[in-house]
Write a structure and sequence with these properties.
The protein is mostly helical and 185 residues long. The chain has 8 helices and 2 strands. Helix 4 (90-102) runs antiparallel to helix 8.
């Protein structure tokens, strides 16, 4: 295994389960209709009475999920079909992410001359809270500081990805993952 110091910017993702609990719950066969096993498997465990927890194993384990930009897009779009990309959720997420993560910086710059206006203070508060969390995560999990600076662009790409996934889902285009096609409602 590569040493963590050399892994800056790589994804760290591991699911560890007890064999007995896994088979008692029916394992992945019980959630075969989904591609979100990292979320739904723990839910299944809890429904069956087993405890789950989250641990930071970034110093002990590494997972490289994707090898190209196209794989990242397909993988995230696949997850979007079971996440924000639904007709009821995406408008809400779009408004919150645009107004909370993307627009505060342009609004702050635009309202700079009137530094005591309500728009200025709201934009400053949104910018500090959005970037504050991003800075803490970058520091704690050794993420790229460039990613912190480009955070609003990342949010715009995330929203584009979600809308792309929703349009494909509404059009009836199946999502493929690991050589399987899923038609999600």
């Amino acid at each position: 295994m590569e040493r963590p110091e050399r892994l800056r910017g790589r994804v760290r993702a591991v699911v560890v389960v007890r064999r007995q609990a896994y088979f008692a719950c029916g394992g992945h066969a019980s959630i075969s209709e989904t591609m979100h096993d990292g979320l739904l498997l723990p839910q299944l465990f809890r429904r069956k009475g087993f405890r789950t927890s989250v641990y930071d194993l970034s110093r002990d384990a590494v997972c490289r999920m994707y090898r190209s930009g196209a794989e990242v897009w397909r993988g995230l779009a696949k997850n979007a079909t079971e996440g924000m990309a639904s007709p009821r959720r995406i408008p809400v997420f779009t408004v919150f992410l645009l107004f909370g993560q993307v627009l505060p910086l342009p609004l702050l710059i635009w309202s700079w001359a009137e530094s005591f206006s309500l728009v200025y203070w709201l934009a400053l508060a949104a910018l500090l809270s959005g970037y504050g969390i991003r800075v803490v995560c970058a520091w704690r999990y050794r993420q790229s500081w460039r990613g912190v600076l480009l955070h609003p662009m990342g949010v715009l790409v995330l929203l584009a990805l979600q809308w792309y996934a929703l349009i494909r889902k509404v059009a009836g285009v199946p999502t493929t993952w690991k050589q399987r096609a899923y038609r999600l409602q």
